[in-house]
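Quick question, first post here. What does this chain look like in 3D?
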Amino acid sequence: MARAKSKPKAVAAASAKASASSDAKASSKGASRDETKNNNWSEIFSRVACVIAHWMGKPIAFLIATALVIIWAFTGPLFNYSDTWQLVINTSTTIITFLMVFLIQNTQNRDTMALQLKLSELILVISEAENRFAGAEDMSEQELEELHEELRRRTETTLGALNQRRAAEKKAS
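> Answer (accepted):
Ran it through. Tokens below.
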């Protein structure tokens, strides 16, 4: 079961620093106002993206979308299956798909960062772990490939040793 812990020192320090810097920024004018606006827009977008992603992942969203497509299909005879009738569904789905790409990417970025932070914390608190893995997401592609190859070799060596041990235990019993 997970233990409740206080914030990591880095997070607590960053929070205190951000709070102090936001107070200082609020008192200054000019360029800092633009930063505050950018942070507000980013925060607003992030919140809206979270809410929309949450609701779009629910079964009711799928049912509503399905109902709309069925209603559209049944209106075909009313509009003699005209080009405009077809254009309505094509345009609607294109716009929705276009906007959902950004929401999905935002959600994916946030989830990936949260996962990386959790893994980094686990790596750092496990005494036998190699701390160099905590920052793996910041490595170059070549460094990641080299690390992958090293870990693959270590895995094969460990697996070979385990298989030998199992074979020896089978012979003994």
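The chain has two domains: 44-132, 140-173.
Residues 142 and 148 are 10 Å apart (CA to CA).
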